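Sanity check

After download, print the first record. It should look like this:
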Amino acid sequence: MTNYFRSRAPLRIGFAGGGTDVSPFSDNYGGYILNGTITMYAYTTIVPRDDGNIKILSMDRRVALSYKSQEYIKPDGENNLVLGVYNRIVKDFIKHPLSFEITTWVDSPPGSGLGSSSTLVVSILGAFSEWLKLPLGEYDIARLAYEIERKDLEMKGGKQDQYAATFGGINFMEFYDQDRVIVNPLRITSTYLNELSMNLILFYTGISRDSSKIIDSQIKSAHTRKGDPYTALCQLKEQAMEMKNALLRGDLFRIGEILDWGWQLKKKTSNKMTNAYIDKVYQVAKESGAAGGKISGAGGGGFMLFFCPGNNRYRVIEKLSKLGGEFRRFQFEKKGISTWTA
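Expected C-alpha coordinates:
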Protein backbone atom coordinates (compact mmCIF):
# COMPACT_ATOMS: atom_id res chain seq x y z
CA MET A 1 0.00 0.00 0.00
CA THR A 2 1.34 3.42 -0.99
CA ASN A 3 1.45 6.12 1.67
CA TYR A 4 1.02 9.77 0.76
CA PHE A 5 2.55 12.20 3.25
CA ARG A 6 0.89 15.54 2.71
CA SER A 7 1.18 19.11 3.88
CA ARG A 8 -0.63 22.39 3.31
CA ALA A 9 0.48 25.86 4.44
CA PRO A 10 -1.41 29.15 3.91
CA LEU A 11 -0.17 32.21 2.05
CA ARG A 12 -0.43 35.59 3.74
CA ILE A 13 -1.27 39.22 3.16
CA GLY A 14 0.69 41.90 4.98
CA PHE A 15 -1.15 44.73 6.66
CA ALA A 16 1.59 46.79 8.27
CA GLY A 17 5.27 47.01 9.15
CA GLY A 18 6.56 45.45 5.94
CA GLY A 19 10.36 45.61 5.65
CA THR A 20 11.06 45.94 9.37
CA ASP A 21 11.52 42.15 9.61
CA VAL A 22 14.58 42.28 7.33
CA SER A 23 18.04 42.06 8.88
CA PRO A 24 19.97 44.09 9.91
CA PHE A 25 17.12 46.52 10.70
CA SER A 26 15.25 43.99 12.84
CA ASP A 27 18.48 42.94 14.57
CA ASN A 28 19.44 46.48 15.50
CA TYR A 29 16.10 48.15 16.19
CA GLY A 30 13.47 45.42 16.35
CA GLY A 31 10.77 44.92 13.76
CA TYR A 32 6.97 44.84 14.03
CA ILE A 33 4.78 43.12 11.44
CA LEU A 34 1.03 42.61 11.27
CA ASN A 35 -0.16 40.03 8.75
CA GLY A 36 -2.92 37.50 8.20
CA THR A 37 -3.07 34.15 6.41
CA ILE A 38 -5.65 33.57 3.69
CA THR A 39 -7.35 30.70 1.89
CA MET A 40 -4.61 30.31 -0.71
CA TYR A 41 -2.02 27.62 -0.06
CA ALA A 42 1.22 25.82 -0.86
CA TYR A 43 0.75 22.03 -1.06
CA THR A 44 3.29 19.20 -0.81
CA THR A 45 2.98 15.43 -1.16
CA ILE A 46 5.81 12.96 -0.57
CA VAL A 47 5.67 9.34 -1.72
CA PRO A 48 8.62 7.16 -0.54
CA ARG A 49 10.56 5.19 -3.15
CA ASP A 50 13.01 2.31 -2.83
CA ASP A 51 14.94 2.65 -6.11
CA GLY A 52 17.61 5.13 -4.97
CA ASN A 53 16.11 8.03 -6.94
CA ILE A 54 14.52 11.37 -6.12
CA LYS A 55 11.82 12.77 -8.38
CA ILE A 56 10.62 16.36 -8.00
CA LEU A 57 7.39 17.53 -9.62
CA SER A 58 6.40 21.20 -9.47
CA MET A 59 2.90 21.04 -10.91
CA ASP A 60 2.14 24.76 -11.01
CA ARG A 61 5.44 25.53 -12.75
CA ARG A 62 5.30 22.41 -14.94
CA VAL A 63 8.79 21.30 -13.93
CA ALA A 64 9.87 17.67 -13.46
CA LEU A 65 13.43 16.71 -12.54
CA SER A 66 15.12 13.55 -11.23
CA TYR A 67 18.26 12.98 -9.18
CA LYS A 68 20.24 10.05 -7.86
CA SER A 69 19.75 9.86 -4.11
CA GLN A 70 22.72 11.13 -2.11
CA GLU A 71 23.34 12.94 1.16
CA TYR A 72 23.81 16.34 -0.50
CA ILE A 73 22.46 17.55 -3.83
CA LYS A 74 23.57 20.96 -5.04
CA PRO A 75 20.52 23.24 -5.34
CA ASP A 76 19.71 24.39 -8.85
CA GLY A 77 17.54 27.15 -10.19
CA GLU A 78 14.49 24.98 -10.75
CA ASN A 79 14.29 23.06 -7.49
CA ASN A 80 16.46 24.96 -5.05
CA LEU A 81 13.72 25.15 -2.40
CA VAL A 82 13.04 21.40 -2.39
CA LEU A 83 16.72 20.54 -2.48
CA GLY A 84 17.53 23.09 0.21
CA VAL A 85 15.01 21.46 2.55
CA TYR A 86 16.16 17.94 1.62
CA ASN A 87 19.82 18.75 2.30
CA ARG A 88 18.99 20.22 5.70
CA ILE A 89 16.73 17.30 6.69
CA VAL A 90 19.46 14.80 5.86
CA LYS A 91 22.18 16.84 7.56
CA ASP A 92 20.31 17.64 10.78
CA PHE A 93 18.11 14.60 11.31
CA ILE A 94 18.42 11.53 9.07
CA LYS A 95 22.17 11.33 8.30
CA HIS A 96 21.67 9.19 5.18
CA PRO A 97 20.21 9.61 1.66
CA LEU A 98 16.47 9.34 1.07
CA SER A 99 14.55 8.14 -1.97
CA PHE A 100 11.14 9.64 -2.73
CA GLU A 101 8.86 11.48 -5.13
CA ILE A 102 7.75 14.95 -4.07
CA THR A 103 4.95 16.93 -5.70
CA THR A 104 4.31 20.62 -5.00
CA TRP A 105 1.71 23.20 -5.98
CA VAL A 106 1.31 26.86 -4.97
CA ASP A 107 -1.91 28.82 -5.48
CA SER A 108 0.04 31.99 -6.27
CA PRO A 109 2.83 32.53 -8.83
CA PRO A 110 6.41 33.27 -7.68
CA GLY A 111 7.12 36.94 -7.07
CA SER A 112 3.48 37.71 -6.28
CA GLY A 113 4.11 39.21 -2.83
CA LEU A 114 2.08 36.69 -0.82
CA GLY A 115 5.10 34.89 0.59
CA SER A 116 4.81 31.97 -1.83
CA SER A 117 8.45 30.81 -1.70
CA SER A 118 8.67 30.82 2.08
CA THR A 119 5.25 29.21 2.41
CA LEU A 120 6.35 26.44 0.05
CA VAL A 121 9.46 25.82 2.17
CA VAL A 122 7.23 25.51 5.26
CA SER A 123 4.94 23.11 3.39
CA ILE A 124 7.86 20.97 2.21
CA LEU A 125 9.23 20.84 5.75
CA GLY A 126 5.81 19.80 7.00
CA ALA A 127 5.59 16.88 4.56
CA PHE A 128 9.06 15.65 5.51
CA SER A 129 8.18 16.01 9.18
CA GLU A 130 4.99 13.98 8.67
CA TRP A 131 6.88 11.24 6.80
CA LEU A 132 9.90 11.03 9.10
CA LYS A 133 8.12 11.88 12.38
CA LEU A 134 10.53 14.73 13.10
CA PRO A 135 10.30 16.42 16.53
CA LEU A 136 9.49 19.90 15.21
CA GLY A 137 7.16 22.38 16.88
CA GLU A 138 5.79 25.52 15.28
CA TYR A 139 8.70 27.78 16.17
CA ASP A 140 11.12 25.03 15.08
CA ILE A 141 9.55 24.72 11.63
CA ALA A 142 9.39 28.49 11.08
CA ARG A 143 12.96 29.10 12.18
CA LEU A 144 14.30 26.13 10.16
CA ALA A 145 12.44 27.39 7.08
CA TYR A 146 13.99 30.82 7.58
CA GLU A 147 17.50 29.37 7.95
CA ILE A 148 17.14 27.23 4.83
CA GLU A 149 16.01 30.17 2.70
CA ARG A 150 18.08 33.01 4.07
CA LYS A 151 21.25 31.23 5.21
CA ASP A 152 21.61 27.93 3.34
CA LEU A 153 20.24 29.14 0.00
CA GLU A 154 21.24 32.81 0.54
CA MET A 155 17.87 34.09 -0.68
CA LYS A 156 17.24 37.64 0.43
CA GLY A 157 14.17 38.57 2.40
CA GLY A 158 12.62 38.95 5.82
CA LYS A 159 11.34 36.62 8.49
CA GLN A 160 7.58 37.14 8.56
CA ASP A 161 6.50 34.71 5.82
CA GLN A 162 7.83 31.56 7.45
CA TYR A 163 6.13 32.34 10.76
CA ALA A 164 2.83 33.34 9.12
CA ALA A 165 2.66 30.10 7.14
CA THR A 166 3.48 28.00 10.19
CA PHE A 167 1.24 29.65 12.79
CA GLY A 168 -1.67 30.88 10.67
CA GLY A 169 -4.27 33.47 11.67
CA ILE A 170 -3.86 37.20 12.12
CA ASN A 171 -0.72 37.91 14.11
CA PHE A 172 1.30 40.81 15.43
CA MET A 173 4.93 39.65 15.15
CA GLU A 174 8.02 41.01 16.86
CA PHE A 175 11.50 40.45 15.45
CA TYR A 176 14.70 41.05 17.41
CA ASP A 177 18.40 40.20 17.34
CA GLN A 178 19.69 36.63 17.37
CA ASP A 179 16.64 35.54 15.39
CA ARG A 180 14.37 36.05 18.41
CA VAL A 181 10.78 36.11 17.21
CA ILE A 182 7.54 36.52 19.17
CA VAL A 183 4.24 35.67 17.48
CA ASN A 184 1.24 37.33 19.13
CA PRO A 185 -2.11 35.99 17.83
CA LEU A 186 -4.75 38.71 17.72
CA ARG A 187 -8.17 37.81 19.09
CA ILE A 188 -10.44 39.64 16.68
CA THR A 189 -14.18 39.09 16.94
CA SER A 190 -15.89 37.28 14.06
CA THR A 191 -17.96 40.40 13.34
CA TYR A 192 -14.86 42.55 12.85
CA LEU A 193 -13.11 39.83 10.86
CA ASN A 194 -16.08 39.27 8.54
CA GLU A 195 -16.43 42.99 7.91
CA LEU A 196 -12.69 43.35 7.31
CA SER A 197 -12.83 40.54 4.76
CA MET A 198 -15.80 42.18 3.00
CA ASN A 199 -13.96 45.46 2.73
CA LEU A 200 -10.71 44.08 1.29
CA ILE A 201 -9.97 43.26 -2.33
CA LEU A 202 -6.88 41.50 -3.66
CA PHE A 203 -5.79 42.60 -7.13
CA TYR A 204 -3.05 40.80 -9.09
CA THR A 205 -1.14 43.17 -11.33
CA GLY A 206 0.23 40.35 -13.47
CA ILE A 207 3.76 41.61 -12.80
CA SER A 208 6.10 39.04 -11.28
CA ARG A 209 9.00 40.83 -9.63
CA ASP A 210 12.39 39.96 -8.20
CA SER A 211 12.35 41.35 -4.67
CA SER A 212 16.11 41.04 -4.09
CA LYS A 213 17.02 44.51 -5.43
CA ILE A 214 14.34 46.16 -3.31
CA ILE A 215 15.49 44.28 -0.22
CA ASP A 216 19.12 45.21 -1.00
CA SER A 217 18.22 48.90 -0.83
CA GLN A 218 16.43 48.38 2.50
CA ILE A 219 19.44 46.55 3.91
CA LYS A 220 21.70 49.41 2.83
CA SER A 221 19.41 51.91 4.56
CA ALA A 222 19.57 49.94 7.80
CA HIS A 223 23.37 49.97 7.66
CA THR A 224 23.67 53.71 6.99
CA ARG A 225 21.04 54.60 9.65
CA LYS A 226 20.11 57.78 7.84
CA GLY A 227 17.97 59.19 5.06
CA ASP A 228 14.32 58.77 4.10
CA PRO A 229 14.43 54.95 3.77
CA TYR A 230 15.73 54.46 7.31
CA THR A 231 13.26 56.99 8.75
CA ALA A 232 10.42 55.34 6.85
CA LEU A 233 11.29 51.90 8.28
CA CYS A 234 11.18 53.34 11.80
CA GLN A 235 7.78 54.86 11.09
CA LEU A 236 6.52 51.57 9.64
CA LYS A 237 6.96 50.06 13.10
CA GLU A 238 4.58 52.73 14.41
CA GLN A 239 2.19 51.91 11.57
CA ALA A 240 2.11 48.25 12.66
CA MET A 241 1.19 49.29 16.20
CA GLU A 242 -1.57 51.56 14.91
CA MET A 243 -2.95 48.77 12.75
CA LYS A 244 -2.95 46.34 15.67
CA ASN A 245 -4.86 48.78 17.89
CA ALA A 246 -7.40 49.53 15.16
CA LEU A 247 -8.13 45.85 14.54
CA LEU A 248 -8.43 44.95 18.20
CA ARG A 249 -10.76 47.88 18.88
CA GLY A 250 -12.82 47.32 15.76
CA ASP A 251 -11.95 50.75 14.38
CA LEU A 252 -12.23 49.41 10.85
CA PHE A 253 -12.88 52.85 9.38
CA ARG A 254 -9.21 53.60 10.16
CA ILE A 255 -7.80 50.58 8.28
CA GLY A 256 -7.76 52.32 4.91
CA GLU A 257 -6.11 55.42 6.36
CA ILE A 258 -3.40 53.31 8.04
CA LEU A 259 -2.81 51.29 4.87
CA ASP A 260 -2.43 54.48 2.86
CA TRP A 261 0.02 55.88 5.41
CA GLY A 262 2.06 52.68 5.20
CA TRP A 263 2.09 52.78 1.40
CA GLN A 264 3.46 56.32 1.40
CA LEU A 265 6.17 55.17 3.81
CA LYS A 266 6.99 52.02 1.84
CA LYS A 267 7.62 54.05 -1.29
CA LYS A 268 10.33 55.92 0.59
CA THR A 269 12.23 52.72 1.44
CA SER A 270 13.20 52.02 -2.19
CA ASN A 271 12.94 53.76 -5.53
CA LYS A 272 12.00 50.36 -7.00
CA MET A 273 8.91 49.98 -4.81
CA THR A 274 6.49 51.24 -7.45
CA ASN A 275 6.20 52.05 -11.14
CA ALA A 276 3.86 53.93 -13.48
CA TYR A 277 1.36 51.06 -13.74
CA ILE A 278 1.19 50.49 -9.98
CA ASP A 279 0.76 54.22 -9.39
CA LYS A 280 -2.07 54.26 -11.93
CA VAL A 281 -3.81 51.30 -10.28
CA TYR A 282 -3.53 52.96 -6.88
CA GLN A 283 -4.86 56.27 -8.19
CA VAL A 284 -7.87 54.65 -9.89
CA ALA A 285 -8.64 52.58 -6.78
CA LYS A 286 -8.61 55.67 -4.56
CA GLU A 287 -10.75 57.67 -7.02
CA SER A 288 -13.23 54.78 -7.16
CA GLY A 289 -13.75 54.54 -3.41
CA ALA A 290 -10.80 52.71 -1.85
CA ALA A 291 -9.72 54.37 1.39
CA GLY A 292 -6.19 53.03 1.09
CA GLY A 293 -4.07 50.12 -0.03
CA LYS A 294 -0.59 48.77 -0.56
CA ILE A 295 1.61 46.41 -2.51
CA SER A 296 1.73 43.01 -0.87
CA GLY A 297 5.31 41.93 -0.20
CA ALA A 298 8.53 43.72 -1.07
CA GLY A 299 7.01 45.77 -3.90
CA GLY A 300 7.51 46.32 -7.61
CA GLY A 301 4.60 44.12 -8.69
CA GLY A 302 2.58 41.11 -7.60
CA PHE A 303 -0.63 41.58 -5.62
CA MET A 304 -2.11 44.85 -4.37
CA LEU A 305 -4.45 45.02 -1.39
CA PHE A 306 -7.18 47.68 -1.09
CA PHE A 307 -9.57 48.58 1.72
CA CYS A 308 -12.95 49.62 0.32
CA PRO A 309 -15.44 50.69 3.02
CA GLY A 310 -19.17 50.16 2.71
CA ASN A 311 -20.08 48.79 -0.71
CA ASN A 312 -17.28 50.59 -2.53
CA ARG A 313 -15.56 47.30 -3.40
CA TYR A 314 -17.88 46.77 -6.37
CA ARG A 315 -17.08 50.09 -7.99
CA VAL A 316 -13.33 49.64 -7.34
CA ILE A 317 -13.43 46.18 -8.94
CA GLU A 318 -15.32 47.55 -11.94
CA LYS A 319 -12.83 50.37 -12.53
CA LEU A 320 -9.67 48.31 -11.93
CA SER A 321 -10.93 45.56 -14.26
CA LYS A 322 -10.36 47.99 -17.12
CA LEU A 323 -6.63 48.19 -16.25
CA GLY A 324 -5.94 44.49 -16.72
CA GLY A 325 -4.82 42.19 -13.95
CA GLU A 326 -7.23 39.99 -12.05
CA PHE A 327 -8.98 39.69 -8.68
CA ARG A 328 -8.61 36.80 -6.27
CA ARG A 329 -11.34 35.94 -3.80
CA PHE A 330 -10.16 34.93 -0.35
CA GLN A 331 -11.18 34.48 3.24
CA PHE A 332 -8.96 34.59 6.29
CA GLU A 333 -7.43 31.28 7.31
CA LYS A 334 -7.15 30.75 11.06
CA LYS A 335 -5.01 27.61 10.88
CA GLY A 336 -1.34 27.42 9.94
CA ILE A 337 0.45 24.40 8.52
CA SER A 338 -1.48 21.13 8.39
CA THR A 339 0.07 17.70 7.78
CA TRP A 340 -1.51 14.27 7.36
CA THR A 341 -0.95 10.78 5.96
CA ALA A 342 -3.23 9.22 3.35
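If your output differs, re-run the checksum step. Summary of this record's structure: Residues 5-187 form a domain with the Ribosomal Protein S5; domain 2 fold (CATH 3.30.230.10).
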